[in-house]
Each structure stands twice: as C-alpha cells, then as structure tokens.
Amino acid sequence: VRLTGLLLTSLAAWYLGFFIAARVPQTTISNAGFQGIRKKPVLRAPVPKRQKCDHWSPCPPGNYAYRILSGGGKEKMAKICFEDELVIFNFHGAAQQIYRLLSGQHLLKFRFFPGFSNWTVIRCVTDSTDHSGEMMSFIRNAQEGTLLLMATHDDGSTLLKNDAKKLVEELGSREIMNLKFRSSWVFIAAKGFKLPDDIQKEKINHSDQKTNRYNGWPAEIQIEGCIPRNLI
Questions:
Q1: What's the main place this protein lives (predicted)?
Q2: How far apart are CA 192 and CA 121, in angstroms?
C-alpha cells in the first residue's frame, strides 16, 4: 500500500511539474536570470579620450601639440599636424619636400619644393626654377619666433643643393647632410628661439633594398611632442 502511494505521489508531482513548465512562458524563465548565474561580470574600460594630433597622452597646459609624418611609398602621404590642425600632402606621386611655418597661434603658410622622381626629372629639365633657392628664401623670410616643420615624400635630396642643406643645418638639423635618395626625413626647427632639449626634433630612415617596407621605399617615420607656448 505504501509503495503504491509513493508511486502515485511521484507520478502526480511529475505531472504537476510538466503542466507548470508547459504553461509558464520561456521569457519569464530567462528573465529570472537563471542562465546567467554562473557568468562572471564583464568589466569594460572607458574609451580613452582622443588627444590632439592623436598623441597617446595630452600635452601639459600651455603647450602646443605637434606630429610630423614623412611619406612612405606612393600611397602613404606626408602629414603635418599642429594643435590638431592636420595637413595631408597629396602630390600624386611627385617627390616633394615640405616646409610649413607656424607663428604664434596661427598657421601662416606652407610651400612645396619639388624633389626628384620620374615625373619631376622631366619637369626640372625644362624648368629653370631654382627650388633650393626658393626654399632658402622661404626660410630666410620667416619671422623671428617661427616654427618650421619639415618632411620628405619620395626623394628630397637629389635636387637639394648644399647651400640649402647648410641653411637647414644652421637651424639645428643633424641629418640633413646625410639625406640620401628617398630617405624618409622629418624635422622641426625654431627660428629666433631654442626648442626644449627633451623633445623629438628629427628622424631619418634611409632606403635599403633589404629592409624597405615598400618596393624601393623605406618605411615612413614620425616625430611628435609638445612645445611650450611661451617660447613662441
């Protein structure tokens, strides 16, 4: 009798459970959170705030932010960023040397000086313009208290004369005399004042068939940093 009662009770409990499961919506069960009891909470770090010129960390108050990126290959154009104002130089394959002047809180002007490539060879043979002379006049006419940001794309050495190189060297460049065919080169200089010793001022990367990132082209390089506003 007891065994029969136990079997009947078990059968009734099973039937009751089956009846309840069939009647209760699945969304109610999932919303109860039973499925996520064993899951560990996911901690997500906040998205980092973007800094001027894409610096990893912000410049201290009272500083200008800058970043100079040389060209790399035919598709990677030279870029100059100052206080988050970005200039991308697209020369459609023509080699160029870029000089941009900055004074106070205003970007004054920029100029392109053709270098050497298959396109500019033809142009320079029929064009008597002295681009090295133009560059020298451009630098010499810059006012005191001016920043000069320089970069190369393709080749900036073949048509750059020694007197122009010496002028850049007088601005503090240690690599301008070492510039070779298609060297990637970036440089920041000051006219009429001295830049801090602890900032990135210049980098160079020479073309080498064994290490070139692109076909016949070295990898692009960059410098970045912060310049106290009271110096300008």
A1: secreted
A2: 35
Query: What is the dihedral sign for C-alpha 110, 116, 119, 121?
Result: positive
Tokens of 162: 């020694």
d(CA 173, CA 164): 12
Q: Are the C-beta atoms of 109 and 101 separated by less than 8 Å?
A: yes
Bridge partner list, 228: 63
> How does DSSP classify residue 145?
T
Q: Is residue 32 part of a domain?
A: no
State pLDDT tens for residues 160-186: 889 989 999 999 999 999 999 999 999
Q: Residue type for 196, please?
A: P
Half-sphere exposure of 229 (CA within 13 A, CB side): 12
Question: What does DSSP say about strands 202-205 and 184-191: parallel, antiparallel, or unpaired?
Answer: antiparallel
Token pair, residue 133, equals: 């002379």
H/E element holding 140?
Answer: helix 131-140
Q: Is 202 inside a domain boundary?
A: yes
Residue type at position 103: S
Tally of domains in the chain: 1
Check if the beta carbon of residue 90 is closer than 8 Å to that of residue 100.
no
Q: Does the predicted TM-score (pTM) go above 0.90?
A: no
In the numeric block, which tokens belong to residue 230? 């009271």
**pLDDT tens-place string over residues 11-48:** 666 666 655 655 555 554 455 454 555 566 677 777 67
Whose structure tokens read 């499961």?
A: 21
Q: Which domain holds residue 161?
A: 52-92+104-231
